[in-house]
Structures are given as C-alpha cells and as structure tokens.
C-alpha cells in the first residue's frame, strides 16, 4: 500500500550490479553489506511511499571511500544513493533503480571549529545534536533544527529548516561551502570560508536541496552563531488561527527578532495535552522563543504580549527558567508522537507546504474545513513565521477508501498552497512524492532547466536517479 | 591603457549583426539605437578594463521586448548583454564579441508591494533609491545598499551587497524568485512568493550572480523589512586596524545585531577629513549603525562601547539625530570622491576581496605594507562585519611603470585573500577582470561545473559571452 511513485528509472543490469558488488567487497571488506535487513533499513519506510532497498550499502569513512564507490558505480552505470540518518520524508533515500547506498554514519567528525569566524568544517554524517554538543563549550551553536536528529549532509541535501528558521534562516542561508564528489570521482569545491562571495556561479546553492542527484557531499563549511545570553519561552492562546497569524505578521513587521514562533491548531493542542499531560486551552496556540540579552528578551516578550492582546490572544506567559522552557517545547517536539497516540496502529504521514504569510490563516482554515469534509484527522503545526505548516495525516493504510481520501486531501493541500503563490514543500523536499507538483508550481521551462542541469552534471544519471526531476512524460 | 582582458570570444559575423539590427529596428523603431555615443555609454568605462561597446542598444519596456530581442539574436548567433545602470566594476557590461545591449532604464516599475508578507515584485530597472522612495509610506524598506544607486536587476546579477549586509544579508538572501528569459525567448519562473522552499534545484540562486550569462532577468520578487523604529549612528577611533577588527568580532560573537559596521583605515579617514570637512582622529575608524526600538538601540550602543573600550577604541560617540547621522554616513558614502580628490586626474580602481573575519586585520595590514613597498596610494574601506574590504587604488593611467605596480598590487591582494581561505571578490563579481583568479580559488573541477552549466542553459553562448567562465585555455 502506498502513494503512487510515477517516476521509476530503469534498473541497472544484474551483471553490472554483481560486478560493482564484487569490486566494492574487495575494496571495503565488511564495510560493504548486502544483507536484506541492512538494505531494508536503508530504504524509505517513514512515509506511505513504497520501500525500494538498494543492492548494497557501503559504510564510508572518508572522502576517498566515496570517490572509489562513485568511480566503480560510474564504470558500470549503477546508481549511488547518499544516506544520512534516513529521516527524510519524501522518499529521498529510496533506490528505485537499485544501486549502492553510501551510509555516512561513520563520517561524523567535526574537522575544524573557527569560533571567531562563526563557522566550522564538518563531515556530512555529523548530526545536529552531536554538533551542538561538540560546540557548546566554545559559546557557539548551529541554529537549524528540523526536529529529527538529522545529519548535516542530509539537511543540506534537502534544504532543511525547522523551528529556528524565522530568525536564523534555513540550510540555504547557513552553508558557506561544500566539497562534492562528482560523477568521475573527482572533487568539486564550491566555495571558501569567506562569509560572502560573488565569485562565479553559486554552486553551493545548487547542491543544497539537490537531494544527492548532482553529486555527493563529503564535507560542509557551515555558519555558527553565538549562544544567546538569555533564552525565554512563551505561550499564547488565540480565539482563532487568524488571530494567531495576524499577531505573527505584526511581530515580524515591527521587527521583533523572534527566534521561534510555532502555531499548533486546536486539534494539535488537544493531542499534546493528552500526550504530554498539559492543560493548555484547546484553541489555536502560539509557542515562542526569544533570544538575546536579558533586557532584550524582556522587551521582546513585552512587545509581543501587546501585539497578541490586539489580536485576540490571551493568557500570554513567558519564562526564562530552563525547566519551564523545556516543558513547553518538549510538547512541541513530541507533537508527532502525540498525533500517533490519537489513533494507535494508523499510519501517520507528515507533509508540508509554505505560503506567503498573509495567506496562512486562509490556507490553514480551508485545510481544516477540507479535513472535516473528507472525514480525516490531521493535526496541524506550523513554522508560522515562515508561512510553512505541516499536516500529520492519520490513515489506516489497509483501508483503501480512507487512503484514497487521504491522497485527495494531500493533493488539494498542495494545489491550495500553490494557488496562494506558495510552494508544494517548504522544507521536506521533492524526492519521489512531490515530483508531480513541480510543473504546476514553476512551469515546464523551470523543469527543462533542472533537466538540463542534471544532464550537465550527471550525464550518466548515476546520482540518486528517479528523484526531484520528473520523468519525461510528466 | 587597461588591465589585460584574456577572454575574448569571437565576434559575431558582421552580416549576422546587420540582419539583427535590421529586424530589431523594424520591431523597436527609435527604441533601437546604434549611435556611437549611446553605444559607448553602454560599454564599461568605470574601471581600467578597456571599453568594448555593443553594436546596438534596445530600450526595453516589458518582458515581451526582451523575449523578442533574445529570439532575434539567438536566430543569428549574436550576443545579448543586459544593462542596468552601468555601475558594475569588473567589466560586466562590456561587449567583447559585440552584440545587442538591452537597457532596462524604462523597465522601472514596482509591480506589487505586499507589506504584510514583507515582499514586493519589481522590474529589473528599478533602482535601489527609487524602490525605497516608493516603499517608504508603507513602513517597509529594501536593505541592500551597495553604495551606487544601482538597478535591482544588476544587483541580483552581480550578487551585490554593501554596508547593510552584516545584518540583512546580500542579494543572495533577499531574492525570493526571478522571471528569466532563456535562450529561445521562453520564460523560466524560478520560485514563488513563499519565504522558503525545498522544491527542486535552486534556480533562483543560480541566476543570482550569473552576471547575465545564463539568461536575462525581467522580474524579481524580493524580501523587504520593516523600517526600524529608531536608527542610531556611531563612530569610534582605534589605535590599530587589529583593534577595530577585534571589536567587530566580539560584537558579532556576542550577538549585537549591528546593522552596519564599516572600517576606514587611517589614510581613508584623512581623505574624508579633507573632502568632507571633518576633524576625525586620523587613525583607523569604525562607523556603525544600530537599528531597533529606542531601548534596543541604546543597549546595542552601550554594549558596543564597552567592547570597543576593551579593544583600544576611544572617543565612542553615538546619536539618533537624523542630521548627525547623515553627516557621519555622508562621509562614508563620499569615500570614493574623497579618494579621487587626493590626486586629481589619476584613475581610481575599486577592487574588493573578502576573508574570514579572524584574518581581516592581517589581510588589511599586509595590504597596507604592500602599498608602501610598491609606492602606491590606496585608501581602504571595509564592510568589516563580513570580512570584506575595498581598495581604491590611485594610478596615473599614462604611467606604464606605475600601472604595472598597480597590477602587481591587485594580483597580490587577491592571492593574499585566497591564501587566507577568502575569495577574490566579496561583492563586485568576476566579470572580465577576475576570471584568472577563479581556478586558484575553487579549482579546475568547479570551473568545469560552471562551464557545463553555461553550456546546458546557454548552448549558443549568446548571453553575455566572455564573462565569469574563463576561456578554455585558462
């Protein structure tokens, strides 16, 4: 049972795959694994998309390993798929044409930290939490937080963002340079440690969000920030989604540098109350975080409280006590589990869209109406400062009728966002699941350009085939 | 007399050019101009690079005009060069292979302003000052300020930035979407009005900084900011460039959200004193601007003053009075004229490099030493928060020996920045002048990738040939 995958590239010849596996086994010994269990672990299982395991998995330890895998695969026309932690949501790590998965679990070193320059150089398998653990003593942190403890290579490849993006930007704004293995195994350096540059085409941004389809990232230079002196958390309930959105717009317009501003719709608050043993009013809720000096944070909180009051917000509370902050944000971080607990045994599919913030209230409200009409259950959480929100749709995957309504819902959600000058995905990426929406969003000419770039940089189509760029028929 | 241009693409056949001019004259009437004076105005005259005028200039009024120019030129293999205000600094608007220049002077409309969403849609000929004039009543502004009153299309094409980048980012962070005319005259839409997106390859960023070599931008959707409640200007003199740089690093590390932080070296201060009738101490100077609420700005100023004190800064003064602010910043904006007045009749060439901020003091100091050794005069101003600085080199263009020393100086400046993990240009772009440095900075593989992309998106090489991508021999 699964969402239709329409772009199924041709599988490599079994003889070619066998030759590649033999050569890689000789090179990597027991770091090449072909057991079914490991192959299945590396295919995509967190969505409705069908799992498509690779033929083999190599655990890389250094860039030279990746170069060798790419060279062997290229010689035989066998696909190469990069794998971080497997938390992507649109089938990015599936292997529809088979091939070799390169697992970056062991390429997890922080190579250099330049605290004065607010940057560091890392291997792609470093995870977000491990990185911040490593950095803490030096008074700096990496702000992008997509929820999952994803690898930085994967986060760059899907152009991830999350709760902090409203203040600190997404992966797009926080990667300075990449080292990328190209189709013949040689290495492209896309930039330097300079904070800005006008030197030639922006290769860095071309590989960010390319989901491993143009080459394989083996090193990242990323921006860091100073750990704020004070962090305050706040919560504020609203009569309506519209009031919460209006408060967000006003806060951003007046320049309150809010670090996080998350919307939970009434149904999500209900789920969190039940799961996290809270007693929040079961109406739309904004969860906020302010960063800065003590005086800063106090002023930001005061200013936001005034705005919230004008927009029908009530019961605004804020705190700088770490234990209170943690409690509040833990509920947000557990939102997925809270949804899952609403209907044990059902599948949960997370999908995301992003619209101009002035249309967010319309988009969320119409989406809630659609859920009622289709008799579906999907709490909503939103990175409301960016106009980005997620639906966590609960469906019984064995109930064909409900699944069909679920697909209709998701289809209509994307079309609604696009009709409001928004995008079919703010942060999850295209992968396999959203290829059919690219043309409607950007037009055939943009797809042509993407195809031409793919052909130019990966003429043998060995890098993660079947992702992002739709099949020629679409 | 001029800096060597090494990449000279083959000129279009005179017959082809004649055919294009005839067709465009029929289509555009007196909006097609071939007079020598107008052609020369559209070639590059603000640098040491030799001027290379186009064969004709078309004054476009709408996207359809650009589409028609491109179609006619493509049919005959004749180059098309986009022209904003002609303030680029590395030969970006030169026409080394001849061709048709498209002047965007008359495509200067603000098409939509979405104050709630903090974005607007504009034509490429809108200039920075005209845009902010237009926006003022709505409480929003566009923060990128490269000094010159450049057009937004040109600013996007060279990935411009300037004095506000330390807080608000560069053009890279402030363009949401572009409309681009491709080689067959069709239009590529690169994005939507959503603040963030993971939908496919990042075409927007590929065209930003492409200097018109991959297509021609005919519409931009850009990000705006709320006009800050209070703006304060400050100045602080330092014993040494190192002290000024150290204060900057500490300010950024501790998260003071300074909006502008500009370094003037002692020689630049001297030039400004003389030109702008000021009496600043003739030692390294930081000029700052703080944006925020009144309380915010006061706190930022106080915190910075403390840091400056620790780093050998003295005489820190700050003010929110508009007339005092203007006086201070006027001196900075007139820095170029102040340099010119130091030696009337000499040529001034502005060049820029950018290094990790921890290396900035070394880079500036070594550059000052080099100037002494080479008996050259070049005041230095720096967007010090980004590690980016400019030399305004004064040379008698008729003195071959001095010019040779000037070229040596600029060459060594770039190599110095690159050896410190920096870039040959932070914001001026590659154009013609800096192609020879790209390979040293990024390696042959990055150049290969740029060539492959150019070939994929502009197979006929009609878009601004001879720019960015070095000739195959380099």
TrEMBL record, chains A, B:
Its EC number is 1.1.2.4. It comes from the Bacteria. Residues 50-227 form the FAD-binding PCMH-type domain. InterPro entries: FAD-bd_oxidored_4_C, FAD-bd_PCMH, FAD-bd_PCMH-like_sf, FAD-bd_PCMH_sub2, FAD-linked_Oxase-like_C, Oxid_FAD_bind_N, Vanillyl_alc_oxidase_C-sub2. The keyword Transit peptide applies. This is D-lactate dehydrogenase (cytochrome). The keyword Oxidoreductase applies. Pfam families: FAD-oxidase_C, FAD_binding_4. Its cofactor is FAD. PROSITE patterns: FAD_PCMH. GO terms for molecular function: D-lactate dehydrogenase (cytochrome) activity; D-lactate dehydrogenase (NAD+) activity; FAD binding. Keywords: FAD, Flavoprotein, Oxidoreductase, Transit peptide. Belongs to the FAD-binding oxidoreductase/transferase type 4 family. One of its GO terms (biological process) is lactate catabolic process.
